[in-house]
Amino acid sequence: MNKEKQTIDMLSQIGKLLLQHGAETELVETSIKNAAMKLGCQELSILIFPNAILLSLPSGDKVYNTQLYKAERQDVNFTALDKVIGVIEQIDETSDRAKLLEALKDEKSLSPMYPYYLRNLMAGLGCGAFSLLFGGDFYIFAAAFIASTLGFYLNSFLLKHYFNPFISIILVSFVTTISSGLLTLHNEMAHIAIASSILFLVPSVAFINSVNDLTKRHYTTGLVRGVRGVIISFAIAIGISLALHLLGVEKFV
Amino acid sequence: MILDISIGFFVSLSFAILFNAPKRSLIPIIILGIGAVLIKKYMLLYNFSLEFSTFIAAFFIGLVSIYFSHKQNIPILVYAISSSIVLVPTVNAYKAMMGFIQISTHQINNQELIIQSLHYGLRTWLVFGAITIGIVLPTQFLKKYRFKIL
């Protein structure tokens, strides 16, 4: 494998990993440029789409090497961002490119997750604690805890079986609302339990990244992320309203 | 006070773990989350509006996360997103949605309900805007540092 191909593969792998795990566009661009500077390529053009990266690197006088990389999925994993940035810091002109490329291609070790049971427990605890913030009592906390633990379990089960993410969000918010609604059926503070138990679905990364991109003049990616956030919010709303129509809207105002 | 601190602790810690934040960033995230809860609560006690107090709390998160990000060499995003979850106005959003469901199903002539749900909906969007602008604004002021961080 020649050196130029290795360089461009490495740069696009860096960009792809950052884009997949929830980095903003500016961060992707500066990281690729930083790595390119360290590898000794001065003239690099980058174009970042919401789910793909186009890199173009001049070689020789009139030839350009161009590479298009697609980001296969979009999830949030901040440890992966940290690890990729750590790899970029190790790069210098003398470092072994084949080894670095191998390290970057090993996506499993670059994106570790916390153990599954811990994440499930934490989803419940976070949503339960959030209900206390709005003045819920201990019973509301317990209801939100149970409902969101159940919902998170269902969410990861559906995503593991490659469900359409929007449909799985509708299903998850439906199940979460049904369970928290049934647990707090004749309680005055039922709305706090329902509103806080679906908090783990809120597309906060999409919204904050969208504003981040729009203010830094990456309009295309910013708009697409914003639209994605709005669609997720509507999916959550559809799930909740289906569940409330089943349970009876008047009980939960 | 102790209840607020523990709420900030648990909410920010659990969302940091849901987003797979690196282990060394967990303590800064918890500090930011607790700070945001306390700022919002005490500003509301002194009769500031919900939007303004949320904005100041988000601004605090944005500003302090620049410091941590500089120190630990982790992107600002990691701190800002996990700790800003405590500011999300879920109950307002829920009330707006319930109002719209009620209007669309049977209570078409209830003007009070229409105005009330519009009020909650606008409030939700303003608070969301306050969170995002509050986080993004400090990074725009301090551009020099942002590029150093990478």
Blueprint (SSEs and pairs):
The complex is a heterodimer of chains A (253) and B (150).
Chain A: H1 3-20, H2 25-39, E1 45-48, E2 52-59, E3 63-70, H3 78-90, H4 97-105, H5 107-110, H6 116-133, H7 138-160, H8 165-183, H9 190-197, H10 204-215, H11 219-247
Antiparallel strand pairs in A: 1-2, 2-3
Chain B: H1 2-18, H2 26-45, H3 50-72, H4 76-84, H5 90-105, H6 111-141, H7 143-149
Helix pairs in contact in B: 1-2, 1-4, 2-3, 2-4, 3-4, 3-6, 5-6
Description of the molecule:
The complex is a heterodimer of chains A (253) and B (150). With 253 residues, chain A is mostly helical. Chain A has eleven helices and three strands. In chain A, helix 1 runs antiparallel to helix 2 (25-39) and helix 10 packs antiparallel against helix 11 (219-247). Chain B has a domain at 2-87 and 129-145. Chain B has helices spanning 2-18, 26-45, 50-72, 76-84, 90-105, 111-141, 143-149. The longest helix of chain B has 31 residues, at 111-141. Chain B is elongated and about 60 Å long. Chain B starts with a helix and ends with a helix. The model of chain B has no long low-confidence stretch (mean pLDDT 86). At the A-B interface, helix 2, helix 3, helix 6, helix 9 and helix 10 of A face helix 1, helix 4, helix 5 and helix 6 of B.
Encode the helix/strand succession of chain B as letters. HHHHHHH
Q: What is the global morphology of chain B? A: elongated
Beta-strand fraction estimate of chain A: 5-15%
The value of Rg of chain B in angstroms is: 18 Å
Q: What's the average pLDDT of chain B? A: 86
Number of helices of chain B: 7
Topology, number of strands of chain B: 0
